């Protein structure tokens, strides 16, 4: 092929390549255009989602404002109910105290009445013995004063006028009275006045003198008008009541004395008494008479009934208020739950809008890149078109040049034919010389054939010896060595083929030097004569060797059979191996000694195992099975390593996200507790965060940022509390048990700690072991253990519903100063690079325990930190 043709062919291929590139660019452009269209559609879909998310975000904000307003109203209503409950409780307690006081007074008065306090000793003894069932005291029907009722304000007047008569014991008849008096006289138990019920007669009459007195003394009343007597005993008191006049004061009493007749009595409301004909008694003794006590008992009973009604009404109102408080609290909790849900939904919508905004930016960037790629493809298409046009022009020019060269080649072909005719004539002459050479070669081949037969017999012996050596080596070696020798035999065969090639090349050289061989023909004939002489001398040796060769043939057949049975080999393979030995000259004595030694070795080897082939097949099958299992295990190991790497990567990402939230919460809570400053958490080994420790750094106001090791006990306690509630903001627990966390805090910091608890009391129930009075004052319920008796413990509880002069308002919010976000991409990149590599055992354990590790980091604190928490800048207790 001429240079023009090669250039033409190169241009043709270049044109075809440019056409293929143009086609690829067209397909690429079409694909990018489709991608751009899809990006535009996706961008429209994202815009629609952003609009929907913004609408939902706005609706959520409106709902959140409404719920916040409802929460404020419910809080105000709850506070109002608390105030009303406090007022009503005080009123209830006051009513309860008044009821207790009246009950005690009423019981005391009843006890005095029952014991006949203020009456004679005889009356007391008689009725005590009647209560014990002694005779004849059981016949007593009561005391006369018990049977009357006096208008309020006139008790002193009646008791002063008729105390002796009204303290008379009521008996059925005279015999009973005599028996009573005799019994009292014998025992000396005091004096007793008895009144006989059977002789009492009721007379309904009004003395004429009373009318005269009432006309002359305004306001004067008859004792019958102010005294109410039981019907059965009216006849006992009427005789002296009808002759008794009640006046207002001593002035009227002095006027009444002149109007009194025999047997009449005048008495003031304060108890001064005037009797006919001119006796006046008065003064004041600080005692309470029976009638006054009786009137007070009636008044107290009425007041107690009214107080009971008021107390019951107060209890019902208090219960109603408490029920309203409970319902309002439940509504407030539900409202707070709705607010939390709305805040979460609002945050989710905000995050979704940010994600959509990032997606939109990404799509815009992709669309921009796609359009830039389309422009670049258009430029490349124009460039390819220009290159294709240029190549086509070159190809046309070269085609014209090639046509001219072909015409010149046609003239050269004619000249070549003339040269070939001369060459054929020379070849005919060469053919005649070659026939002569062939005749000579036939004689030479005949001699060589005889020599070859001798060499073959010699070769058979060498092959037999080689086979015996191979057999010995095969028995001493392993099965894998046979395969190695097979590969060596194949290499030897390859060398033989190369040798044949070299022989053919030598033959070609001999034909080229045929003229020289004809000159040497005579020398060869002389050599042939010598060979014939040698042939005759070796015939006898060959005959002797044929006999031995016959025996060797039989032995070779046995060996061949054993090769097939034991080694699964054949004669041809062994023959190829034997040819490697070359054409070495070996004497018969040496061969015989070698054969004898080989036979002795074979005899020492013992019997041949006929089951070796079957055992080899079984072992090979097992080896294949184990190899497949090993491959499966290797694949499974790789799959597990990739899975472990993915789990480790996911666990590390989840841990870092949670850790970042706790960092920001810790800084924010620390600033609230200390009123400023700064706090931070740092991972010691960012490349291996799942096994790394965490260092706490804090900067209270007025101090530098440093580790918490040199801090005071109070500062450590307050810092630990800030870390605890920072974790609670990520993952709250329904219960939290705190054991003397305020032990190292002063009163001011204890108050801060108590106020901080208010932010979490609605979602977590705190159980605090403490000896601090400020912490106790902030609790809703107290539990104490006391020992009333030795060895017997008693639990005492108290619930607080009202606190005075104790500020439990939430801690004020401080200005938000978020911490700078750490860059963990290096650690994550290291994790991604190790996905396909070897996974360390520690990393495998991390992948299994990663979820539990994150949960533990988000819900627990170290026990030492819990017991020795940190404080604020004004901490004074170390």
Describe what this molecule looks like in 3D.
With 878 residues, the protein is α+β, with helices and mostly antiparallel strands. Among the domains are: 144-179 and 192-286, Alpha-Beta Plaits, CATH 3.30.70; 648-867, Rossmann fold. The chain is 69% helix and 8% strand. The protein has 21 helices and 16 strands. Strands 4-6-7-8-9 form a five-stranded mixed beta sheet, with helices on both faces. Helix 3 (155-166) packs across helix 9, helix 9 (290-476) runs antiparallel to helix 12 and helix 9 (290-476) crosses helix 13.
Brief descriptors of the model:
elongated, Rossmann fold, three-stranded antiparallel β-sheet, 21 helices, alpha+beta, Alpha-Beta Plaits, 878 residues, single chain, five-stranded mixed β-sheet, disordered C terminus
Write the SSE topology.
Elements: H1 3-114, H2 121-131, E1 148-150, H3 155-166, E2 169-171, H4 174-187, E3 194-196, H5 208-216, E4 221-222, H6 223-226, E5 227-229, H7 234-241, E6 244-247, H8 250-257, E7 265-268, E8 273-275, E9 279-281, H9 290-476, H10 479-512, H11 514-519, H12 521-567, H13 571-578, H14 588-605, H15 612-674, E10 678-683, E11 694-699, E12 706-707, H16 713-730, E13 735-739, H17 747-757, E14 765-769, H18 773-778, E15 781-789, E16 792-799, H19 825-833, H20 841-859, H21 863-867
Parallel strand pairs: 2-3, 6-7, 13-14
Antiparallel strand pairs: 1-5, 4-6, 7-8, 8-9, 10-11, 11-12, 15-16
Helix pairs in contact: 1-9, 3-9, 9-12, 9-13, 9-14, 10-13, 15-16, 15-20
């Amino acid at each position: 092929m001429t240079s023009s043709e090669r250039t033409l062919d190169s241009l043709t291929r270049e044109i075809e390549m440019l056409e293929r590139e143009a086609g690829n660019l067209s397909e690429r452009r079409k694909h990018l255009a489709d991608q751009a269209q899809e990006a535009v559609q996706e961008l429209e879909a994202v815009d629609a989602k952003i609009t929907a998310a913004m609408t939902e975000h706005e609706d959520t904000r409106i709902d959140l404002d409404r719920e916040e307003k409802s929460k404020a109203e419910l809080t105000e209503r709850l506070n109002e109910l608390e105030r009303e409950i406090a007022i009503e409780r005080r009123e209830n307690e006051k009513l309860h105290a008044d009821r207790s006081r009246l009950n005690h007074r009423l019981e005391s008065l009843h006890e005095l009445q029952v014991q006949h306090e203020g009456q004679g000793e005889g009356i007391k003894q008689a009725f005590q013995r009647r209560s014990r069932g002694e005779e004849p005291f059981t016949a007593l029907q009561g005391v006369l004063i018990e049977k009357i009722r006096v208008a309020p304000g006139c008790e002193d007047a009646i008791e002063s006028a008729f105390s002796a008569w009204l303290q008379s014991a009521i008996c059925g008849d005279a015999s009973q009275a005599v028996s009573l008096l005799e019994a009292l006289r014998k025992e000396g138990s005091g004096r007793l006045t008895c009144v006989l019920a059977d002789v009492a007669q009721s007379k309904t009459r009004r003395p004429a003198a009373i009318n005269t007195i009432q006309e002359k003394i305004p306001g004067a009343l008859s004792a019958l008008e102010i005294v109410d007597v039981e019907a059965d005993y009216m006849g006992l008191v009427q005789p002296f009541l009808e002759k008794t006049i009640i006046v207002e004061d001593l002035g009227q009493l002095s006027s009444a004395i002149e109007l009194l007749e025999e047997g009449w009595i005048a008495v003031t409301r304060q108890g001064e008494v005037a009797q006919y004909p001119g006796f006046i008694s008065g003064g004041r003794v600080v005692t309470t008479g029976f009638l006054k006590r009786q009137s007070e008992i009636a008044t107290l009973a009425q007041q107690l009934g009214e107080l009971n009604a008021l107390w019951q009404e107060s209890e019902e109102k208090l219960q109603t208020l408490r029920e309203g408080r409970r319902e309002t609290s439940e509504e407030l909790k539900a409202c707070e739950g709705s607010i939390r849900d709305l805040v979460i939904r609002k945050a989710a919508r905000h995050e979704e809008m940010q994600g959509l905004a990032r997606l939109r930016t990404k799509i815009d960037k992709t669309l921009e890149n796609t359009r830039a790629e389309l422009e670049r493809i258009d430029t490349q298409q124009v460039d390819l078109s220009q290159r294709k046009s240029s190549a086509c022009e070159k190809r046309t020019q070269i085609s014209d040049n090639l046509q001219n060269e072909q015409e010149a080649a046609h003239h050269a072909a004619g000249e070549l034919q003339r040269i070939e005719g001369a060459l054929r004539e020379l070849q005919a002459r060469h053919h005649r010389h070659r026939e002569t050479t062939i005749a000579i070669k036939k004689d030479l081949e005949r001699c060589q054939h005889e020599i070859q037969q001798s060499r073959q017999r010699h070769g058979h012996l060498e092959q037999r010896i080689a086979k015996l050596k191979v057999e010995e080596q095969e028995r001493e070696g392993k099965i894998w060595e046979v395969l190695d020798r097979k590969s060596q035999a194949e290499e030897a065969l390859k060398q033989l083929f190369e040798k044949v090639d070299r022989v053919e090349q030598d033959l070609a050289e001999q034909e080229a030097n045929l003229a020289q061989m004809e000159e040497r023909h005579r020398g060869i004939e002389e050599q042939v004569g010598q060979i014939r002489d040698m042939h005759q001398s070796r015939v006898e040796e060959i005959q002797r060797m044929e006999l031995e060769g016959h025996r060797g043939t039989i032995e070779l057949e046995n060996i061949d059979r054993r090769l097939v049975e034991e080694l699964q080999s054949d004669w041809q393979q062994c023959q190829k191996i034997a040819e490697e030995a070359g054409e070495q000259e070996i004497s018969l004595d040496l061969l015989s000694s070698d054969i004898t030694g080989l036979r002795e070795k074979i005899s020492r080897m013992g019997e041949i195992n006929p089951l070796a082939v079957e055992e080899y097949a079984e072992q090979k099958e097992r080896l294949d099975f184990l190899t497949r299992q090993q491959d499966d295990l290797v694949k499974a190991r790789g799959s597990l390593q990739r899975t472990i790497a993915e789990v480790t990567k996911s666990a590390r990402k989840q841990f870092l996200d949670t850790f970042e939230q706790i960092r920001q919460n810790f800084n924010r809570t620390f600033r609230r507790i200390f009123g400023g400053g700064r706090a931070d958490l740092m991972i010691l080994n960012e490349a291996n965060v799942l096994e790394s420790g965490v260092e706490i750094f804090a900067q209270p106001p007025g101090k530098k940022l440093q580790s918490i090791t040199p801090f005071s006990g109070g500062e450590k306690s307050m810092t630990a509390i800030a870390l605890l509630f920072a974790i609670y903001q990520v993952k709250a627990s329904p219960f939290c048990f705190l054991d003397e966390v305020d032990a190292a805090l002063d009163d001011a910091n204890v108050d801060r700690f108590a106020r901080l608890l208010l932010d979490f009391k609605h979602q977590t129930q705190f159980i605090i072991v403490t000896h601090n009075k400020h912490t106790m004052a902030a609790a809703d319920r107290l539990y104490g253990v006391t020992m009333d008796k030795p060895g017997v413990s008693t639990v005492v509880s108290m619930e607080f519903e009202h606190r005075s002069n104790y500020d439990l308002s939430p801690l004020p919010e401080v200005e938000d100063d978020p911490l700078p976000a750490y860059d963990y991409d290096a650690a994550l990149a290291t994790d991604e690079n190790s996905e396909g590599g070897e996974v360390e055992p520690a990393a495998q354990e991390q992948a299994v325990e990663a979820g539990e590790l994150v949960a533990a980091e988000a819900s627990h604190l170290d026990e030492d930190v819990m017991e020795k928490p940190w404080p604020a800048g004004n901490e004074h207790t170390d």
